[in-house]
Amino acid sequence: MVVSTKAPSSRLVFGKGNFEHLTEKIRGSPEITSVFLNVERMAAPTKKELEAAWGVEVFDRFTIVLHIFRCNARTREARLQVALAEIPVLRSNLKNDLDGRRGGSRYIMGSGESFKQVQRRLLKEKEIKIRKALEKLRKKRHLLRKQRTRREFPVVSVVGYTNCGKTTLIKALTGDVAAQPRDQLFATLDVTTHAGTLPSSLTVLYVDTIGFLSQLPHDLIESFSATLEDVAHSDLIVHVRDVSHPETELQKASVLSALQGLGLPTPLLDSVVEVHNKVDLVPGYSPAEPNVLAVSALLGYGLEELRAELEEAVLRATGRRVLTLRVHLAGAQLSWLYKEATVQQVDVIPEDGAADVTVTISNAAYGKFRKLFPE
Ligand SMILES: Nc1nc2c(ncn2[C@@H]2O[C@H](COP(=O)(O)OP(=O)(O)OP(=O)(O)O)[C@@H](O)[C@H]2O)c(=O)[nH]1
Ligand SMILES: [Mg+2]
User: Fold this and answer.
1) Which atom, in ligand 1's list, is nearest to the CA of 240?
2) What is the mean pLDDT of residues 237-260?
3) Residue 242 is assigned to a structural domain of this protein
4) Residue 162 is part of which domain span?
5) Which residues does UniProt call coiled coil (predicted)?
């Protein structure tokens, strides 16, 4: 049954006839235990009135997503983000409850504050406390990020629509059992980092991120955008797409517009590597676009090609290259390379007192090397 709505902002969402029709239907079906209204936000009085008429709970997009987030929040940071996102809901409930009871102007003895003011103040204090705790965690993450940069591992952020297979792909690329994919929306709510190796044995850090959702309620984006800060500090972005999903094109557009909204540096946005995942579910799949890699993270198809592509992209993005240099074992060259570059392989040639050393080296470091040790 499809019924049209009036402007979703109007009090009862539906016209009178449709509303009665729906009420009859819902009241007459005991198997309906709750109703989901696909609007971003429902005003508190609307929710109250619909629930009274239908006798079941009514959810909007915001409360559903919030509920999923609450169920999936595992770390302290994710729980705090959810608590922060809940504040506006509590605030609007408070307003509604107090207006309903007309208790707003009663004063609490001796305090000089009305009941309503006390409630508002407590909520404000709660909000400040959460924001402070989040700020502390953010600083800690900033510190970790600095340490990471010092160790110079390139960082690859894996982004995409929720449930597209980001965590599965990272697990397949790194073998890290800490990455736990699940068939759920927003299974990942925290940014986690997993180390993996590229073909030339260069170590990279993959950052698993929270999935995107189109029309994600605005307040939720704000709470969780902090979680995406790491993306801005990465060297490369991998955009994973579930090409078996009927709305894969819409999902892509939604992810790209969310990425634009994060204010990322242009070179980072321009070098996004697009990966088409779940090709095992689409027999004979071949991507229409060029420069796209088709994989099945679950079955392990196409991962070697992906690793090779990632290596090239990472080297390009970080101004590094892989070189094999002939060095004299007697001199300081080898220890210099160990210090200033990533040594991957050393093949000693005893009769020459030399070695062929394969390194990943930044262009700047290579320039210095040549200056210090002319050929
Ligand atoms: N058939 C098939 N299923 C896959 C593939 N990759 C992932 N999946 C399944 O898709 C579901 C979601 O995978 P996740 O890796 O948790 O997806 P995610 O993008 O991390 O999701 P969120 O963290 O919720 O945003 C799981 O049930 C996976 O097993 C694939 O290549 N083929
Ligand atoms: Mg995930």
Assistant:
1) 19
2) 93
3) yes
4) 152-317
5) 116-143
Q: What is the predicted pLDDT for the residue at 175? A: 85
Measured from CB, residues less than 6 Å from any atom of ligand 1 are 160, 162-168, 181-188, 211, 277-278, 280-281, 296-298
Ligand 2 mean position, distance from CA 182 (Å): 7
220 dihedral zone (left: phi>0; alpha: psi -120 to 50; beta): alpha
Domains held by the chain: number = 2
Judge contact between 209 and 224, C-beta under 8 A: no
Cα 262 to ligand 1 centre (Å): 24
pLDDT in tens, 151-161: 568 899 999 99
CA 326 to chain centre: 44
Ligand 1 atom closest to 185 (CA) = 24
Cβ neighbours for 264, distance < 8 A, ≥ 6 positions apart: 231, 232, 237
Identify the pLDDT of residue 222: 65
Q: Whose CA is nearest to atom 1 of ligand 1?
A: 278
The number of angstroms, rounded, from the C-alpha of 257 to the middle of its chain's C-alpha atoms is 14
pLDDT at 120 over 80: yes
By the 8 A CB rule, do 187 and 180 touch?
yes
Tell me which residue has its CA closest to atom 2 in ligand 1. 278
Q: Is the pTM of this model over 0.90?
A: no
- Same domain? For 297 and 351 the reply is no
Mean pLDDT in residue range 89-114: 64
